[in-house]
Amino acid sequence: MGRRLLGAAVTGPGVAAIALENVTLGYDRRPAVHHLSGVIAAGELLAVCGPNGGGKSTLLNGLAGLIAPMGGRIGRGGAAARDFAYLPQAAQLDRAFPISVADFVALGALRRKGIFGRIDQAESDRVANAVAAVGLEGFETRVIGELSGGQLQRALFARLMVEDGGVILLDEPFGAIDAATTDDLLALVAAWRAEGRTVVAALHELDLVRRAFPKTLLLAREAIFWGDTEKALTPGNLAAARAMARAHQADAAFCQRDESEPADAL
Amino acid sequence: MLYDALVAPFVDYPFMRRALVGALATALAGGPLGVFLLLRRMSLAGDALSHAILPGVALGYLAAGLSLPAMTLGGLGAGLVVALSSGAVARFSAQREDASLAAFYLVSLALGVALVSLKGSNVDLLHVLFGSALALDDTALYLLAGVATITLAALALFYRALAADTLDPVFLRRVSRFGEFAQYLFLSLVVLNLVAGFQALGTLMAVGLIMLPAAAARLWTQDLTRALLLAGVLGALSAYIGLALSFVAGLPAGPAIILAAGAIYFVSLVLGRAGGLIRNLTPRRHLEG
Q1: Do the Cβ atoms of A110 and B160 come within 8 Å?
Q2: Cβ of B39 and A66 within 8 Å?
C-alpha cells in the first residue's frame, strides 16, 4: 500500500479541522453530548472512546451534520458538513439491494459528480484503486448481499476512499470484524493520515486505540479527558467515565449552565 | 382459433385497440416503478396510496360529475397531499413512514367514502373503483401516455438518485442535496401513475399492474436494470393477455388484466431462477469455491 492512494487533502500544521465550542448534542432535549469544547487539528488521528451511551455516535452524527447542535457551535474550518466523509455503523444500509461491489464503491463519486454526472475514466480508476487497496479485487461484480461482514466493511472503506474527504469520521469501524481485516483497515487509516487527512473514529477496543491512535477523547456525555492516548486511558479516567454513564436522571431539570461560557477546556 | 382470440378483437374493434394502448402505457411505466416500491419495502404503500386518492376523485366527481380532468386533478391533489405529508411526518416526527401513511390514507379513504355517499349512486362508485378500460376516450389516452412518458423519463433521469436513496438514504443525504427530495419525487411518481391508472383499470386495479409484474420480475433476475425492463415487459404482456381474455370470456377488462398479471406472477414464483420455489427448494451440488 505504498503508493499514494487518493487526491489532495486540506491540511497544514496547527490548522483546526474541527473546533467545538460548548457543543451540546442529543435527542428530545436530552443531551447525549453535554457542553463539549475542544479542537481537532488538521491531520490528527483521534479516537473517541467511552461507555455505551456516552455520546460517541451522537458526536459523530453532529460532526457529519446529520443532527443540529442543541447548543454551542461546531466549526469546520470553512468546510461544509457534507464535505466530511462519514461511515455510520453498518446497519443502516439495505444489504438486499441488488448492486455490484464496483457500483457500490463508485457511489463515493456522487459528491463530485452529482446525481447526473458521468463516471469518467478518472473516477473509474479511483474506484479500481480503492477496491484494490481494501483487498476486494475479484469481487467487483458480486452483489453486496453476498459479502461477509468483513468484506462489506472493506467495501464501505473503499467508498470512503472514493469520497476523498479531507476529514473522515468512522463510527465503530471495527465492530464485528476479525483481526486480519482490522489490521488491513487500520493500515488504510494510517495511509490516510500520511496523506494529511483528519480521522475521527468512535472505538471501544482500548488495546487497538493504544496501538494505533495517538490522541483520544474519552467521552461520557462530557469529556472525561481529551489529549494523548496514554494519559487518557488510565484506570482512573476509565472508572470516572463508567460512573458518569450510570447517572441517568429520569426527571432531569433544565440545564442551567451558561451557554455563552465555554465549559472547561481540556 | 388463436387468431380469433389474440388478434381479431384488436383488429376488429377500435375500443379494444384503445384499451390496449391505455393498458400498455400504464404497464410500461408501472412495472419499473413497482420494482422500486418493492426494493424500498413499500409494496403495500401503493395500495394505501390508491385508497388515499379516492376523496380527491370524489371531490372532482362532486364538482363536475364524471369528468376526467376534474377527477384526475382531484385524485392527484389528494394523493400528493397524503404521500408528501406522510413522508414529511416520517422525516420530522418520531413516527415511522408506514404508520403515518396508514393514518393518512385511512382518514383520506373515510373522507372519500363520505363524500361519494353525499351524491351519486353505488354504480358511479364502482365505476371509479374498477375503471373503464373499454371506454377510453382521446383525453384519457393522452393522459395515460403522457404520465407514462413523464414517469419513464423521470426514472431514467433520476435513476442514480432513486437507487442510492433506496440503498443508503443516509449516505445520499450526506453527499447530495438531492437526498432530501428523492423520496418525495418517487412518491409523486407513484401517485401520478395511480391517478392515471384509475381511468384504465380503476384505483384498486392500477396497483396490481404496478406491483404484480415487478414482483414477478424480481423472481427472474438479481440485476436491477434487467428487473426494471422485465417488469415493464411482463406488465405489457399481462395487459395484452388480460384484454384478450376479457374479450373472449366476457370478463371486465381491469380484473382480467390483473388476473393475467397474477398468473404470470405465480408461474414466476414457481419457476423463477432468482429465488423461485423450485430453485430454492431443490438441493443442488455446491461449487468448489
Answers
A1: yes
A2: no
